[in-house]
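Batch manifest, entry 17 of 40.
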Amino acid sequence: MATRVKRLYGDKVSGTNAVALYWADGFDTIADVDGYIKTFPAGDNEIPYTWAGLYLQLPCGIEEVGPKQFTITATYSPRGAEAVAPGSPESPAEQEEAADHGDGNSTTQVPPEISFSCIGGTQRRTQSLGTISRVTRLVSQPLRDHKGAIGVGEDGKVEGVEVIKNIPRWTLKVSLPAAAVTGAWVKTLEDMAIDPPVNSEPFFGYAPGEVLFEGIQELGNKGASGNWDGQFNFLIQRNREYVTVYSNPNNALEEMNVRGENDGPVEGWDYIWVEYEQIDATVETPGGTKRVKLTVPRQANLDRVYRRADLNALGLKIRRRRAAAGG
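Output type: structure tokens
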């Protein structure tokens, strides 16, 4: 029996979304119907990728109503199709990858499968960005310059201060063909979940060192199409050319600028911590000079606390149907 798809009456429009109904017969399984839809065949009765300026949302709703007979509910909205998959069988000749959103200089629109949020938290900072002023209880007491160290006690211990530290998160919604979710792919996913890595290679436009794999949410075979739907979460810390720990405008020899490996940039997820020491110093007071003990930064260290891995091993890419020539 030849396969056939036929448009049914009953289109619905709600706000910015629209729904079109179709009848399909001659297919053996729901997965066969789903695979056929994603080839986007041409024809008056076929299911188009775009309709009335809206985009088809994948997967479509598919219901088996009889032997080799199915109804299809095609939903259209301003959001692009969620055809995201490793090894996707969906007519690659008819598709192209969406532009990467991590390029901070790009003017290309961020794909609608991507959403953003922030994780609120705090971080203990022991070194200030700059000391604004100092004052003592008695004029005769010497002002102590701790070179930016925050919260120095009489014992020389640096307490620091808790500051707000938000971490940007971006989420990728996926709809993976069942054929792509293999034991080997799941093992890759498990390894990343157990020991979350930072990207060793460019990933969605982000430079190596900027993306931390946070995890997945509710990835499972849920829809009638047999696809695996869910979302992947990633955390972002941008790389920096260098990080200034302490700067003395009057003495360039006291500059403490941390740089990365081989004098390269400081990767976003590498950790900087400061080592302090107590020194004897001579300071001026209205009554003359005095000897005091100061706790000052001695050394800044840049350490790697997350392993590196190629996040592209997940095979995640956002694909769009290739625009027609001249369209």
